[in-house]
User: Fold these one by one.
Assistant:
Number 1:
Amino acid sequence: MLKPIKLVPEFKEIIWGGNRLKTEYNKKSTLNNIAESWELTCRDDGMNTISGGEYDGLTFKQFIENEGFSVVTNQSIDRFPLLIKFIDAEDNLSVQVHPDDDYGLKNANSLGKTEMWYIIDAKPGAKLVYGLKSDCTIDDFKLAIENNTVESKLNYVDVKKGDVFFIPSGLVHAIGAGILLAEIQQNSNITYRVYDYNRVGKDGKPRELHVNDALNVIVNRTSDEIEKIRFSTSVKNDTTLASCEYFTVDKFRIDGGCQFSANAESFNSLLCLDGEGFIEYNNEKYDITKGDSYFIPANMGAYTVNGNLVLIISKIK
């Protein structure tokens, strides 16, 4: 019988990461930092396991293989479609860009990467990179890379709690220091770094850059063009953060109870940003609290979330 599945995250320690996910979101790890907590992932380089119930201890991939891909979707796709993370940036991330599907499949046998960020918290003065300056051409940017003047060509924006940023493939971007966010993205890990503040990794060497690939895929879109892609499959409303060809993401503030449904076309991914409560399905209750992630199988039907909490619910289109 289909039922809510609680997922155990996969942690990533990266040079720019912090420890807020340990101290504020009850993430348990011996890593020096938790830069990324992969809350929904079915990848060889990062795999959820299942907590509780008959599938306790199995990998998420094993669960899908046991139950059949219909728990994901009845649509014709050949791989798990999404990757969802918490990201804690104690320091600046590298300036980077992701390819579209055509470029990713041709050059790395991987989907491209369109993503979105929901800002959970941001320290005073926090900024992020969101595209290039409007008058910066690709040739201008290439010259800036060669001359080590990249920062002069970047479009910096101020960040506050509750902001949403949609990052279509091809958009240059970087999370700035002091930002904690939730990221919903295509299931891809292709990142082309173009600038890394001249930092070195644990081995004492500069981290690898991918300038040629980056220059091949950069598209400097306007705000209107980005918004058109962000809401390409439905009209913006009070709860919807994005609704594009790859995912639909809604945020709900629940005080009491709210009913949802997972149809045959898509699973629901529940990510609890704050508060606590329980999921009720088939007369059973599943506790959910700040930092928890649940996978609701496709075609499970109606379920209720009760309590006082803030949820991000993601699904494919």
Number 2:
Amino acid sequence: MIDEKNKEGQYKPKFMEWGIISKDNFNDIYEVPIKRWDPLSTISITTDEFGLHKKLKRYYGHYSYLSPIRGKRPQGYKAIQEASKRSDLSKEHIDAFNDVFTTITEGKLIYDTNGNQIGDGYSMIITQDEEKRENPFSDTPHKAERIPTSCKALTLINRYPAMARVIEPDILNYIQERLPSHLKLATGINLLTISRDFYPSSNFELMPENILTGIFLSMKEAILYCILEAIERDYYDIPVNPFFNIGTKVGGSQPRIHSQTYIDLNGDGHGSRLELFLKAFKEMGENCHLCETSHGDSDRIIISTQFWTFYTTGSPVRNYHIRFHPNEHIRRFTHLKVNQIKDLAKNLRNIFLALDNIGIDTNRNILFNCCPYGYDADFHMFGDIIPHEVIGGAEMADDMRVARKLPHMAAAEIRGSLEEIL
């Protein structure tokens, strides 16, 4: 691919790459990313119980991000081969994938076995390990230089985001004046965190503990950097959603283990799932369920450490649905301390291996549920590990699931597998 460059020799982003919309790449308002609320399941927020800013009207309910550039992101799995279950990351193993991030970490062009170029090496690095690099609102992608091997993880701006991040003022006015009233330009920051060295997502449990710890620490610092810069630009009430998509069946398009974080800067509310969490914790008051529950008289607990509790939820959204929470009552992922993050990395790896050993689908999501920035809510952060599973029509028609595996029996199976491992 021939790089498109401006007069200064920098890469000239195509429309919506890295969330950039400028006079040089803008063509049509119907190509811009849209955030649209479903009128049949959206309710105006009329109370001030969570301390929301009064400037804008807020909603909760179902919404969609409509972003055509998401369909242009590269698919990193070669054909239908996801991965071999080998623990040695040999060249032959890595060649089973078209990893677009290798050109960024190695600072040079790479090619597949047919001689086709994979990626172009341009990126926007927000944090290298915990060190701040480029400003989260930068509009200038750079050609990557080789990342030192001492680095564990990088957090980047996603090149193919769901939301616009930087928009030239004249273009923003043009878009807002012409968009139909029922449509809203989606604005926000999409982050993507990778390990410096390649580890295939199908071998999640084989990633070294210190590398997974590095991913979490880089994520944490990048989120904080983005929030501070967003506040400086008069954004407020900011939902932040960190997650992993591990495997093609659960949304993973790249074979390298990576996390993503959606930082919504629309300031227009939050989804119905978060609304229920917020109201549930408000109703609990000082009697936080996660602080006080025994998780079914302990028979659903998989493992409990000084810092974390992992358990099978009593109301699973999939069979073998695992929840986990820090034992300390904290609101957000970014409140986690180093010792908590290290323990999280250790236990996630072991639980993934335990799930593998009892034959649970290796396509899994990891979700972190956190209190949005700016919300005055007594929230206890928690996470979900959700294995892929085909669900039925009734389960999509309402917020319900039909599970075949009793949660305490699932916990017993996972505990037994963990005992063999440990």
Number 3:
Amino acid sequence: MRKTILQATDLCKTFSNGKVQQHVLKNLNLSIKKGDFTIIMGSSGSGKSTLLYALSGMDRPTLGSINYGNEEISKYGNDKLAIFRRNHCGFVFQQNYLNDTMSVMDNILVSALLVSKNKKEIVARAKDLIQKVGLDENCYNKFPGQLSGGEAQRVSIVRGIINQPEILFAD
């Protein structure tokens, strides 16, 4: 039996603009088991990104709780949430958010070196993943501005999975 890895209970997210309140998430309940592949679908503006940000701890819910395993991460402070994300989560965003002043390889390694200090192992893993997404060694020293949109997105995917996260959030 697979264990529940991520659970949201009665999750609500409300944005306020002056006197106007927009309820984006309303009493949402969600349970994701280890190994699940979960797709969240909806029209533009329906709260898909808001949900992903809340589940990952990048944004706080207005109400409700989010549990990772037996830990209620929605109660964590900012520092503890950052450590949680670094150690357990990978991210692929709609925008690639690659650092324009860093090479492809450095964009990938910067997040990996926060988790592991074994640079030789990380570089080998990065090279393997770069090849698996259909890029080659010619891209290692390129800068994001020298890549096509698709190439940049594949670099972002490698950056998101380099640390072998337990949860991959792809927006």
Number 4:
Amino acid sequence: MTVITPVVMLADSNAREYADSYTLSQSSVEGPDLRMTDSMRRLATPWNVAISRTNLIDPNSLPEGIILDPACGSGTQLAALCVALNRPGLGVELSGEAAPIAAVNIEEVGKWDKANWQIASRIIWGDSISASKIMYSYSESIGKENPLISLLHIDPARPPDAQKHTIDEMEPPLDKLLAAWAPYLQTGNFSAPALILDLSPRLSEDQQKEVETIVDTIWPEAEKTWQWATQGRGRIDRLSLWVGAVASPHQNRLIRLSKTGTPKLLEGSKETPISDIKSAEIGEHLTIVDPCLIASGLAESWKNIATSSESRWYTITGRRPILITSEPILSSYHELHIQLETYDMIHSFVQISGEVVAHVPQLEHHLISNIAQVAVKVGLSSLKLRCTIDPEIQPQMQSEMDREMRNLTVKNSGNAGFITEVIGGYVICRSTS
């Protein structure tokens, strides 16, 4: 195996010429310009996501020191951490193609941020397992002996099929990496150093336990929080383990990221909800929630905040988990008792919600006109299909439903509604969200 001697990659004229000739600057209204190759762009964390995640960290809780990213890629997440925490960053990158581009990105973000953290920030081309050599090169470069590390962030490379590969197939291997850097990581007032381990969102529960075991082997009483992150569309975009000073008091955390604004945050202990497939009755309220609530184990935590009325999970599988309640979501709480951020958080995980107003036994092409008539009779002016339908025919059926509803209603009259499947058929709901 070839041993790479660590090389400090400064954003000098050679690095800039290389970066500019290889890629174009990626402009962003909300963030700095970042240079990336095509392969980097597919893997890199978008700037708005990177900065939203770092804003969850309390800088005052971290011990002294720099930010380390031993597999920094384009440097996007490292730069976001430096910006949010106002601390220098040390990035290590095994790819000789990526390292000079990351160096240019770090310097550009520093100029964009108009801060001084980039003065002591460095990108090093080398093998991140060689911690002592990396730290020696970094110390020599900044002219400071024994620099401290306050936070380690790592997003290791991994095979595409995360559920079938083993944890030790990650590059760099987590166990070797953490063992190599343990002597340089500060724990402060915590049982373990601050770590953010970005992992595949498809990691199985057994694999999650393997990661925990790796951490516990070095730091037996480490504070740990599993964090699921989603940008919507019912998909977990990131799964990460937050350790030490960056862990929360809760076992699990789910964040709803957005392109603008503060991420919506839900925390709690993992609990498996139990489904009761008793059919939804007229007058009950049906809410289709984001399946990320189920995946993160926080569906019960969310339900306990969302409603104090009689409630039950109708289904907890598939793309459309359903909660049945006797009252609308949050309706039993006085508005002054619920903070706006809590209200927004609850509704950020709602796909659609409404009152059950009618039952229909079937949903077929030849029945669209009949179903539209039922919907109009209960005061609806539109009806969206929120059902499991062949994607090749769903647009046609929705278009036909829209046309029938337009022909039967007066323009701008009535309420919006939706139809979804339940045991024994389908229900029509008057939308409340």
